[in-house]
Every structure is written in C-alpha cells, then in structure tokens.
Amino acid sequence: MTDRELIQALQNRQQDAFRLLVDEYKDRMYNTVLGFVQNAEDAEDLVQEVFIKVYDSIGQYRGEASLGTWMYRIAVTKSLDFIRKKNRKKRAAMLFVWIGASEKNDEYPTEFNHPGVLAENKEQAAILFKAVAQLPENQKTAFVLQKVEGLNVQQIASVMKSTESAVESLLSRAKSNLKKLLRGYYQS
Fold first, then answer.
1. I need a labelling partner for 100 at 20 to 30 A (CA). Which of 7, 108, 125, 141 fits?
2. DSSP 3-state helix, strand, coil percentages of the chain (rounded to 5)?
3. Residue 74 and residue 53: Cα distance in Å, rounded?
4. What are the backbone dihedrals phi and psi of residue 111, each rounded to the nearest 5 degrees, phi first?
C-alpha cells in the first residue's frame, strides 16, 4: 500500500489501515520519543498519544510533507511538550521543598535502556543521553533525529520546518555543546 493509499484509507477511518500505520511506524516513533524523554514507560505513553493525534487529525493532513515526516513532527512536539511539563513540575517540587513541604522530585532514570544501544554500551549511552537532555530544544531535536533516527539533514529540515543550513548549524552547535558537557568523561 502506498502512502497516498494509506492516507486515504486512514481518512476513511479503516481500522486495517490504522493497524498497518502502527506496525510501520511504532518502532521509529518509540525510538525518537525515547531519545527525548529517556524513560521507557513515558515513551510508550507518548507514542500512544502520537498515534491518537495522527488518527484524530489525519483529516487535516495536507500532504506538504511525507506521512513519516508529519508523524516525526508530532512525536517531537509531544516529546518536547512532555519535557516542558515535567520541568515545570520539577520547579514546582523545588518550590515545595524550599518552603518546607516535601514532594518527590523526578530525576533522570537510574537505568537507561534504548533499543538501539548494545548492552555493553548502556552506561556510556546513559551519560550521553543525560548530556543530550541538557541541550537547547532545537539542538536536541536535530541531534536526536540524526543520531537516533538516522535522518539526513534534508529530512530533519522538513521535520523541523527549517532550512538545511539551519539544521547543519544546529547539529554543529549540538556537537560542540556535547563535547563541552562530556569533556570530563572522555578526556584522553
């Protein structure tokens, strides 16, 4: 089934088309979201939200970008929104701690598991993804889409609704910032 046929079937609310869409994109969406939120349970929940959003808004899909690119945009937006909300909760929790009330403050997961990371590299991946989490949103987005999802600069520009030169600049700044953040871990 071509993307065009799949989109038409989705717009006609055909359940088989939705199952096909999920089968085709679930791993890519999960890997992308996990690259941002770094928690398997949160990533699973967000991926479900991505597919619900796709199902609910497929009627507004205009075909300006490929179906996959459109879905990556939704996944990135959902991930960044989740991180912003989580950060707001952390700030509120810190305020409660400061004024004497106690509330649990979520930090990074103690064990990081990403399906694309080999078992012997888990510790290094956790360190890297903790550093990635500290990058500005646009740099983080470009970096995750390139390094986790393997998208090229043109595809990333399409997902981010940006230019290729802007994406190249974001990737360069992300790498530079990561080198600074990871200097203590990887000095030779």
1. 108
2. 75, 0, 25
3. 8
4. -125, 125
Which residues, 6+ apart, have CB-to-CB distance to 55 below 8 Å? 10, 18
pTM metric for this prediction: 0.73
CA torsion, ordered 141, 147, 149, 150, to nearest 10 deg: 120
**Residues 6+ positions from 83 with CB-CB distance below 8 Å:** 36, 37, 133
Residue 30 and residue 72: Cα distance in Å, rounded? 10
Residue count (the chain): 188
Residue-wise pLDDT for 138-182, tens only, equals: 999 999 999 888 899 999 999 999 999 999 999 999 999 999 988
Q: Is the distance from CB of 149 to CB of 33 less than 8 angstroms? A: no
CA gap 124, 42 in Å, rounded: 21
The secondary structure of 100-125 as a DSSP string is: T-------S-SS---TTS-GGGHHHH
- What is the rounded distance in angstroms from the CA atom of residue 172 to the CA atom of residue 170? 5
* Cβ 94 vs Cβ 104: under 8 Å: no
Residue with tokens 């996959």: 68
Residue written as tokens 């179906």?
67
Strands (E), 6-165: none
Q: Which amino acid is at 82?
A: F
